[in-house]
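Pipeline run #58 for the internal structure catalog. This entry was flagged by the ingest filter as a single-chain record with no existing model, so it goes straight to prediction. Upstream metadata was stripped on purpose; only the residue string is passed forward. Reviewer on rotation: M.T. Logging verbosity set to normal.
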Amino acid sequence: MTTLQDPVGGTPHTSTTHHTGTSQLGAHTIPVMPAPPIVTPAITRPEPYMRLHWTDSLTGAVGYLVVHTLRAGLATGGTRMRAGCSLTEVEDLARGMANKTATFDLPVGGAKGGIDFDPKDPRAIEVLERFCEAMRPWIDAHWVTAEDLGVPQYLIDEVFERLGLGQSYHAAIRRSADPAATLERVRDGLNAQVDGGFLLGDVIGGYGVAHACLAAAVSWGQAPSDTTVAIQGIGTMGGGAAYYLHEAGMKVTTLADAAGTLHCADGLDVPALLDLRDSYGEIDRSALPAGIEQLPRTAIISADVDILVPAAISYAITPDNSYDIRARVIVEAANAATTPEAEAMLAARGVPVLPDFVANAGAVAWAWWLLFGEVDDNPETSFDRLRTIMHSKVADLLAAWAERGVTPRETGHRWADEPAPLTAPVIIP
């Protein structure tokens, strides 16, 4: 079924259309934030602009595209693949993308793609290609997509290349007066080399998350070297965050991947562990450095640290495990990492959650800065801009929490509900 919603929140227009194609610890006590939580009314959000449902006739895989908001004919958001991915999940993620674009004053809407299929299945790339082919009217003209859980950037770019669309930012690039020059600028930015042997496009999101964590420590008047952090997930986002936190001197004591949790009270050698990752973001246990304790995967939630960074799956923090959390603050690197019920329970305990649409929005903001020519392939230009903006936003979120008991998500939603008005056509140089 395809449901179209008037972009300014009018009555939904529903038409039945079936889209079938062929073609995812220590001993010290951490003080909690002093601010008392307050109860604020829920903000009523409009229905998504559009939902698309696709079934792959060869494998039975099911895929979804949800466009939450469409601005200037454009919406942006990654494509994920994981067994169990649902329409509800993709809707939540699309809403989060709309929040990100509005919070960072990007003149585009928010969307998300999701495929219910195991990304480790050897047929996964074929399923991804058939999904993109089915969504071609949107990816050709309206939907700018990118990597997400289970779908690395190089893979989705490979699929776009096969489809004759060049690169996953195609819907924006084609609007340029010189698409070839814009595509070259985008590729140069994505592939710019940074310290550690990484590519700028792979680590910019994690860099933003790292500085959300560092801004939290600044708000407490605490030095990075005195601050501990645990990170759940060490793929693109979690791995980048771990690397830059380690570089800044913060003590990363605990990391978790799909195989379990790794812990060292004195701090993990993050670069060494990142070198042991495979293409799925999992660490080779047979080559672990000495002195690392191996714990169950669920142990990451109860890590005795200042900052907990869920950077893996959505809904990782639930009412069932929220009371196990000992951290002083949660920084969402994964999209929709905390359920609303769990977040309310944490707030009641004085533990704020820095929401995904601020903490991990660096990747999407940077991608559009690159498209608009506001940054280039000089990593320092991108890092300086993102660091400055992230520290400012996190400082405002935590000040509202400490001074008035307003949760960071509520403050962030107030920003997102008032996006900068579009006063001119969106032009891609």
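catalog note: The chain is about 35% helix and 15% strand.
catalog note: The mean pLDDT is 90.
status: ready for reviewer M.T.
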